[in-house]
Write a structure and sequence with these properties.
globular, alpha+beta, 2 domains, 6-stranded antiparallel β-sheet, Rossmann fold, 296 residues
Length: 296
């Protein structure tokens, strides 16, 4: 099997470069046929992955959710599956897909795994995603996390969340689903294909990558104190116990707001004045390598 490794030197705040010697040692020990391609800037991985995908049996992301999303968008439309060795800050897609989180276990998954069809999300008819679209508080916290330089992993998002609590307030918006419409102030809305956000937190604990639906978590106007008090529910999958939380399922979602909405797609910030957008799910629309159903 011929494998292309796509590497982001900035993933995990430098973790890629630190892990590279160990990765190369393991690849040689396992006698794997591979080539490495480094990213050089935003959008880079999508362009060269699309050009190179047919020359390989597997494309492996050695990086985080942002690099994963770029590679995904380069692979859609081809026949080459995607593997992930998660070394980013959040690694939420790997968690949602129940992929190994350790380097050697990830390589074993590549050697012994098999193709697996999952659902694919399409944003505004032009960009694909596989894990989540976050709107409001979630996205604003993502923006804040990029300003935190001294921490790594889930702790980055936890600190960003508490910083965001002092600055964020709900925004009126309309969320049109297949058979239901929410017209309310939204503190946070998460359109989830996978269950994990923010480095292992869960806004849609029952979301599955293979069920043909998005799980939409809507949090109406809520006080900062109540969020802090109920924060453990983001970690134990009990967020739906809160009266401000509604979780619904839909194949299509249209969001409309009079105000610009901070947004992220698989952890990548969507720039611009996002006031109206649509997403739809494509059941079984993408092929990954290995993993299993649901939270580990």
């Amino acid at each position: 099997m011929r494998i292309l490794f796509v590497m982001n030197p900035k993933a995990g705040r430098g973790t890629t470069l630190k892990q590279l010697p160990r990765l190369e040692k393991l690849l040689k020990e396992k006698e794997m046929d591979y080539e490495v391609r480094w990213t050089e800037g935003p959008g880079d991985a999508t362009i060269f992955t699309k050009d190179m995908r047919d020359d390989y049996n597997l494309v492996t992301v050695f990086g985080g959710d942002g690099t994963m999303n770029e590679v995904l968008n380069g692979l859609v439309g081809g026949n080459t599956p995607m593997a992930v060795i998660p070394i980013g800050t959040g690694n939420d897609f790997a968690r949602s897909a129940n992929l190994p989180m350790k380097l050697e276990a990830s390589l074993d998954n590549i050697i012994n795994g098999k193709p697996r069809k999952i659902d694919l999300g399409l944003y505004n008819g032009e960009r694909y995603f596989v894990n989540v679209v976050g709107i409001g508080f979630d996205a604003f916290a993502n923006i804040q996390s990029r300003k935190i330089k001294k921490l790594k992993g889930t702790s980055v998002y936890v600190v960003a969340i508490f910083k965001t609590l002092r600055q964020w307030s709900s925004i009126p918006m309309k969320i049109a689903l297949d058979d239901h419409t929410i017209d309310d102030h939204s503190y946070l809305t998460c359109i989830a294909n996978g269950w994990s956000v923010g480095g292992g937190l869960s806004l849609a604990p029952d979301a599955q990558l293979e069920d043909g639906f998005f799980d939409i978590c809507h949090v109406s106007d809520i006080s900062s104190i109540k969020i802090v008090w109920n924060f453990p529910k983001l970690m134990n999958g009990k967020i739906n116990d809160m009266e401000e939380v509604t979780i619904l399922r839909s194949r299509k979602v249209k969001v409309t707001s009079e105000e610009p909405l901070p947004m992220h797609l698989d952890g990548e910030i969507i720039e611009g004045e996002n006031k109206v957008f649509e997403v739809e799910i494509i059941p079984g629309g993408f092929t990954i390598w290995g993993g299993g159903l649901g939270p580990p």
